[in-house]
Write a structure and sequence with these properties.
By secondary structure, the protein is mainly α. Helices cover 64% and strands 1% of the residues. α22 packs across α23 and α28 runs antiparallel to α29.
């Protein structure tokens, strides 16, 4: 009664009641929390009060709080170690220990009444006491805890929980508070005591489990269940590399886990124990336990066989989690030292093991199958000895048969309802949230299946190919989807059709096996000959079936290598199928065929190209015949322009085998001269050089004269055809001219590219002018966005949908085709110009005095107007080639003069685009229009792509500077030397990298950091002092604060340490560090002093890492929400007040409006043109200023 009247006790009770009352006011809850925190930290009598509050007279939340206070005293206020020589300390600690042990023995409620959080907190305190005082200060505390296990039911559970917690605390991954010395002392003291604990555990298990199985009394069942669960958890906690596995075997703990596999309430726990046991004791090299492990594996297999034989196939969901965990046990075991048990002595055990593993393969779950396939890949891997054993071969064909079924696509896809009764689908709905999740797992599973199939085909090539041929033969009987199958409105297969699924899996399996066979044995050739005969007799009206059918023609290489007749038979069949047209589409022009049919035809051409590449050496004698066949198809209007281009590409692949420059050039002349004659004609020049005419040809602007309209449409098609043909043929050139002709110094395609180039440059300029205000005004406002900026296909992807032409409205199709045409010819134009950098004769291209003025008037014109999307294409397809193939003697002036303004412009555009992305992201709310949201998604995708491209050029150029273990400071190559010795260019690149370190993309962040880090070791430290010490340090610090990615933290910290070391004497990095909100000036000063005294670079890095531990990710997700993520101090050194000298940065919005970028850098003005705003007269615009153009011209005088 007096205790309850104590005001402190009353206040504690009241405070805890307020905290736990959901209706309490927020202010009251805060005050109550502050009161109990102050009590826990500062009240001198807190221990006495807490021992009163833990009694069963008080509610559980109050008892739990009291235990928390005691835990705080023991863990935070007690020192670790000590001896009984300090009598007061010994008495104080001993008294509390005995009180708590007595409380555990007699002061708690009954096992079924006491809350788990009370028992667990008490066990945690007792475990901490053991850690703090045992074995020296209180040597009998461990034995007293063991004694608890022999007392009442509650105390027994508390004793088990205490030792479980103790075992966990001794592992470094659970606790880092123990010193290594103390951990070692405890482990050495505990090891001799483990037999007592394990003996007690086994006795308790025997008693508890026996009682559990032999009683019907519900209370007894509940009591024994709790103790049994505690025993299982404790046995798992003692699995650690500090304890010898012999203890587990001697006290039969693995056998206990096997027994529990058959108990519904404990089988998942038993699986976890087994997996942990194998992970700990079988993976490391412990040959001394091989005999025990082999014996135990035999028992495990017998138990698993019993379990799997009792599976209810009609209700797999009930035990599904258990089956997955049991399969994981076998996966873990297979990852151990299998070589120890693959010797003949254990052949029978291994055979049983493989039998069980094969049984798991039959489970309908994709997750289980993928896990078990990995087991087979480990067992049959190159280093495995089991492949040499006689019994393993009987598993090869059954495995192929199972893979053939399991590789079927879509059946486990939770979003496809038509398979809802299939067990794989039912379990897929449990495992996968959506189709993306399913495709990710299925893709990984397929990769693992392919590895296994390849391995098996290597062991038994003939049998494997025989089986694969039989599977293909069976699907050749399926010429069309049967009634009831999934079909589209035209009656064709869909990707969800059963027919297509079995076609795809059978042909893919054949492909994997065929590609794995290296020797052309007679049996292999015979099976391929048999299959070819079947293929030549087959026909189908279904486009998807046709696609898979055609795919097989390139999968019979061994027959073709020894039989020329088969080569001709395949090529003739492919020419025949180039005219593929289902009966339902008879009478349609090739260009009007359905999407599925067009895709099937395209598959024929790509297969023909692949076939020609694979057998090019044998085909030159047949080239004329192939060309004649193609001309017949073209003359009969059976093929379209793009298909003819594919044929030309295949022909050039063959003609490369002539190894004769003149002969090859003559053949290219035959193919390209007719196209180039038209390309260079006046009508083409007029269209290519005029925005209105190009828009009329495309159909954006109307043309009333029908004759002119038809002529413009014809020119439109031929523009694409010429560009596509020349770029495709250029791609077919070998990587080195000497691969074509040892005497040749230039490519035969060179003169043809140069002949096309003037009009290509004119077209590029015209395409850029489409983005000017005058160009955009020619496009109807309602479709302008979807023609110039965001394609409908990309908009659908942002919605997580697919744009399908056949399902779109005629208006959508018309707009999409215009957008796609403009995108394609822009990409092809950039690509052709980029190919000129590589394939054209340097004397005719790089040394042409007029070439670069022409470039400045075309590719470098109007760049401030074109969209981010098109800048991405320009950098990828043109400038990367320009940079990589620019001759060394042009680096010092030409590349410098181009890169400095180009990267300044790109930096400004990208930075502004990221700023807009982040601002829109921050301002997004429930009222945001859905269309605007999808637009933002697409634009963000464009920004990421362009950023990656812009960084890729310096990143790849500095790849040679990446330190390795054997070469910490590698020598720069010519390209890297150019960047390092060009301060103007490198400065712009490094400034851009600074900005990209803080954007919301860890991949971009990492590349930007690596560029800066590679460069730092080679530059003049003084030249770049302000950039690295201020701007770079600031950006890196911002990056670690805003990113939650540990890889970024590591890369950034490493570079921060180098910069701090290199520029510490400037005081700037220290000044920036002091602005971080969580770092006081004193903390920074202490770090600076310690950093200076440390000589080892690794230790310096660790000190900085420790300093920034509280900073990492502190503003995660807050990219660019404020100008500075550091504390706002007018004297702070940040990127806003560092005096950096940069080039002009001008940005434009997507609509062509121009605005100045006021952040850093000089105000530009070199490119101003007074006539720029005249609406009716587009003027030449180039990002190259007049001085740069003059310098370029002087280079070639």
């Amino acid at each position: 009664m007096m205790q309850q009247q104590d005001p402190t006790l009353q206040n504690i009770v009241k405070a805890i009641e307020i905290i736990h009352n959901p209706s309490s006011l927020q202010q009251s809850r805060v005050e109550a929390q502050q009161y109990i925190e102050d009590f826990k930290l500062n009240n001198p009598n807190k221990l006495e009060y807490s021992l009163t509050l833990i009694t069963t007279n008080f509610p559980d939340p109050i008892r739990h709080f009291a235990l928390q206070v005691i835990d705080h005293v023991v863990s935070k206020e007690w020192t670790t170690g000590g001896t009984s020589s300090n009598y007061q300390e010994f008495q104080r600690k001993s008294q509390l220990t005995n009180t708590l042990l007595d409380y555990a023995a007699r002061g708690t409620r009954h096992l079924l009444e006491e809350k788990n959080f009370i028992k667990e907190k008490l066990a945690e305190i007792l475990s901490t006491i053991i850690v703090k005082t045992w074995p020296k200060l209180i040597p009998d505390v461990y034995e007293n805890v063991i004694k608890l296990m022999g007392m009442g039911e509650t105390s027994c559970e508390i004793g088990i929980l205490t030792l479980k917690t103790l075992a966990q605390e001794l592992l470094p991954e659970f606790s880092n508070e123990l010193s290594n010395e103390k951990r070692k002392e405890l482990l050495e003291s505990l090891q001799p005591k483990v037999p007592d604990f394990f003996s007690k555990c086994f006795q308790l298990f025997d008693t508890t489990f026996g009682s559990l199985k032999n009683t019907q009394d519900q209370k007894t069942i509940s009591i024994n269940s709790k103790i049994l669960k505690a025993l299982i958890d404790a046995s798992a906690a003692f699995i650690g590399d500090w304890l010898a596995p012999k203890y587990f075997f001697e006290y039969n703990l693995p056998d206990i886990w096997l027994t529990l596999l058959h108990e519904e309430d404990y089988k998942l726990d038993a699986c976890a124990c087994l997996s942990s046991f194998f992970e700990t004791f079988w993976k490391p090299k412990k040959p001394e336990i091989t005999e025990q492990m082999a014996t135990f594996l035999s028992k495990l297999c017998e138990n698993t066989k019993t379990i799997l034989s009792g599976v209810n196939q009609d209700n797999l969901e009930d035990d599904y989690d258990f089956h997955k965990q049991l399969a994981k046990v076998y996966v873990t075991f297979s990852e151990g030292k299998m070589e120890y048990i693959t010797i003949p002595r254990y052949a029978e055990i291994m055979d049983n093991f493989l039998t069980i593993v094969l049984e798991f393969c039959k489970h309908p779950s994709l997750i289980i199958f993928d896990d078990i396939v990995n087991v087979w890949n480990v067992i049959l891997g190159k280093k495995s000895q089991v492949i040499n054993t006689p019994y393993v071969q009987k598993y090869y064909l059954p495995l192929l048969q199972l893979i053939r079924v399991k590789m079927n696509k879509e059946i486990g896809n939770p979003d496809v309802e038509r398979f809802e009764n299939n067990p794989t689908h039912i379990l897929g709905c449990i495992d996968f949230e959506d189709k993306k999740d399913y495709y990710r797992v299925h893709g990984c599973a397929r990769a693992n299946m392919r590895t296994l199939v390849t391995t098996i085909a290597t062991f038994i090539p003939v049998e494997a190919l025989q089986y694969a041929t039989q599977e293909v033969e069976s699907v050749l009987k399926l010429r069309a989807p049967p009634q009831g199958d999934d079909i589209n409105p035209l009656g064709y297969c869909t990707v969800f059709s059963d027919t297509y699924i079995v076609w795809e899996s059978a042909t893919t399996l054949y492909e994997w096996i065929s590609e794995s066979i290296k020797e052309s044995k007679d049996e292999i050739v015979n099976y391929e000959g048999y299959l070819l005969n079947l293929l030549l007799q087959f026909s189908t009206d279904d486009p998807l079936i046709q696609t898979r059918y055609i795919h097989i023609f390139k999968l019979i290489p061994h027959l073709v290598n020894v039989n020329d007749e088969s080569l001709l038979a395949i090529s003739s069949a492919l020419f025949k199928h180039m005219q593929f047209r289902p009966s339902k589409e008879t009478g349609r022009k090739p260009e009007d065929l359905t999407e599925d049919t067009t895709a099937a035809r395209k598959k024929v051409y790509t297969t023909f190209i692949a076939f020609c590449r694979a057998h090019a050496a044998k085909l030159p004698n047949y080239l004329k015949q192939f060309v004649d066949e193609s001309e017949k198809l073209w003359a009969k209007h059976e093929i379209v322009n793009s298909e003819l281009t594919h044929l030309y590409e295949a022909f050039v692949v063959i003609s490369n085998q002539w190894k004769n420059y003149n002969q090859q050039k003559q053949f290219l002349d035959y193919l390209l001269s007719p196209l180039l004659n038209e390309w260079n004609s006046n009508p083409f020049k007029e269209v290519l050089g005029s925005v209105p005419l190009l828009f009329k040809a495309i159909g954006i602007v109307g043309e009333p004269n029908q004759e002119m309209k038809s002529k413009l449409e014809e020119i439109k098609e031929k523009i694409f055809h010429v560009l596509n043909t020349i770029t495709s043929l250029s791609d077919s050139m070998p990587s080195n001219t000497k691969d074509m002709d040892p005497q040749c110094k230039s490519y035969p395609i060179s003169s043809f590219i140069l002949e096309a180039l003037p009009n290509v440059l004119s077209l590029i300029r015209t395409l850029h002018m489409c983005y000017t205000a005058e160009g955009q005004q020619l496009i109807p406002s309602q479709v302008r966005k979807y023609i110039l900026h965001i394609g409908l296909d990309e908009l659908y992807l942002a919605k997580n949908e697919q744009f399908i032409v056949s399902k779109a409205t005629p208006e959508e199709v018309a707009v999409y085709r215009v957008y796609l045409y403009l995108k394609n010819i822009r990409k092809l134009s950039y690509k052709l110009l980029g190919q000129a950098c590589k394939y054209c004769d340097p004397d005719l291209f790089w040394n042409n005095p007029q070439l670069f003025p022409m470039l400045s008037e075309s590719i470098f014109s109007f760049l401030e107007f074109i969209s981010i999307k098109d800048l991405h294409l320009m950098v990828t397809d043109f400038f990367s080639m320009f940079f990589n193939h620019c001759p060394l003697d042009k680096h010092s002036k030409l590349l410098v003069e181009v890169m400095k303004p180009l990267y300044s412009m790109l930096s400004a555009r990208v930075s502004q685009a990221w700023q807009e992305v982040m601002e829109k992201s921050l301002n997004r709310n429930a009222a945001t229009n859905q269309e605007e949201l999808y637009d933002e998604i697409v634009k963000e995708k464009y920004v990421r792509e362009l950023t990656t491209d812009v960084l890729a050029i310096p990143y790849n150029a500095t790849e040679c500077l990446k330190p390795t273990k054997n070469n910490l400071k590698p020598s720069p190559d010519a390209t890297a030397s150019f960047l390092l010795n060009s301060p103007d260019v490198l400065g712009v690149i490094l400034m851009f990298s600074c900005k990209m370190m803080t954007v919301a993309d860890p991949v971009i962040n990492q590349k930007a950091i690596e560029i800066a880090q590679r460069s730092l070791l080679y530059i003049n430290a003084k030249t770049y002092e302000k950039l690295y010490a201020a701007e770079m340090f600031y950006s890196l610090l911002t990056s670690v604060m805003t990113s939650a990615d540990e890889i970024i933290h590591a890369f950034a910290t490493s570079l921060l340490a180098v910069i701090y070391k290199m520029y510490r004497n400037t005081g700037v990095p220290k000044q920036i560090l002091s602005q971080v909100p969580t770092l006081t000036q004193q903390v920074v000063n202490n770090f600076d002093e310690s950093f200076f005294k440390t000589k080892d670079d690794k230790e310096k890095r660790n000190k900085l890492k420790k300093l920034l531990a509280s900073v990492y990710g502190m503003n995660s997700g807050k990219f660019m929400k404020q100008k500075s993520l550091l504390a706002h101090d007018p004297n702070a050194v940040s990127s806003q007040n560092v005096d950096m000298s940069t080039t002009d940065e001008t940005t434009t919005n997507e609509k062509g409006g121009k605005k100045k970028n006021k952040k850093g850098g000089k105000k530009g003005g070199k490119n101003k043109n007074k006539n720029n705003n005249k609406p009716n007269k587009p003027v030449q615009r180039s990002f190259l200023d007049e001085m740069t153009i003059q310098n370029l011209q002087n280079l070639f005088k």
